[in-house]
Input
Amino acid sequence: MKRYKSILTVVAIAILGIAAGAGIKVYSILHTKSADILDAIESSIDSGSAQYAELKEQGRFNILIMGEDDVEGSRRSDTVLFATVDIDDKNMRILSLPRDTRVQIPGHGVQKLNHAFAYGGPDLLKATVEKYLGQPILYYVVIDYNSFPAVVDILGGVEINVEKRMRYVDRAGKLDINIQPGLQTMDGKTALHYVRFRKDALGDIGRVHRQQQFIKALLKKVYDPRILPKIPELTAQMMKLFKTDISPALAIQLAGFAQNELGRERIFFSTLHGQAATVNNLSYWIGDTKAANEFLNAPLEMLISGDVAENRNTNNFAGLSLSYSSAADENGNGKASGTEKKPGQVMKKDELLDLVRSMPESIAVLNGSGKAGLSGEIATRLQKIGIEVVMSANAKHFDYKSSNIVYPINAKPEVVETAKILGKLLDIPSSLIRSNNQAFYPSVIIGHDNQKLMSRIDKLIEISTQ
Output
């Protein structure tokens, strides 16, 4: 593995890129096109590797994030995050892997996941997670806990709602955690205690949940433009916090991607589903890798709409939900934001006709449900209310549970406006109206809720002929 290069990346992408994008000299790099980022990565890796194949076929790559801690002179990693950065569909997915996850460590047999770092550092932990999830990892990031509090203090602290009192004393380890319940702004020291605490009934799973809550609070903080004046000081501290094999130029490009393309609602979190078990008198977390890969590979619109099916036997631990959520969902105990859909509202004839006439562009209809002939059927109905349809075809897959609307990346305002009007006409939530690199026109993608969509259009036809 390449030598450590202390630069900003991943979480730093959010902090530096989102906060500083408009004001630093690397403006042009921060505004690099998505295709250029993919080209830059492709040119730096082996064209015969699994990482290259995933990048070429799906427009995404994976990063392993490790929290490094020094406990009584022993380096260990009790925090392991698997992050997928999707350049094509503009989202990030972060999967927390509990430290006690039962895995096969190359050369060491079946062990707990965090033992891999102790045996062979980032290289061995990376190889272990690749084997476990069956997903190639392109880059790694190591976070130094010793520099962690200073970053939080520079940001002015983070606001977190503590669910219950957290109390633990380890005099030998010089650790005294005493955090009261309630909403509070944590300084760096308190935040570090918050993400380290595991001495309750939920153990490491509870700590994983709190770590996700902290990252969400951190992201909320760094989206605040008032952070901009603190960038020089923040950057200097970040240099101490992160070690990675991502090049500085690529890190800046990814910062621009995060700033320009990723909102908090497009950053998703999940914990490896599973169950606690005792094997040979050792406690383990038996992970559900099938559920993990469903989260990592699900189409974006399914995550946004909350349509990803989850195994009820493994998505809950001692009353704590392990279901996925977005960074915009600060409660973090349910599914991603956007799962609640507003009921359809019937519009009057004049309003309907005015909306149709105000659509500046033609549209396409794509079949994302797999039902034969559906795109042509929907296109014909839309034409009856005066919408100009220039193409009907199949979508790139048939797994769309909910109908949604897409438009080309970097589309002109008229195209975006057409997509928004179409969404209003068809009663499709704004969370399901998005840019997509596969789109050539503002397009409605028909999902498995096609009967609902058909009923909506039939009602519009009825209104238009009154």
Remarks:
- The chain is about 40% helix and 25% strand.
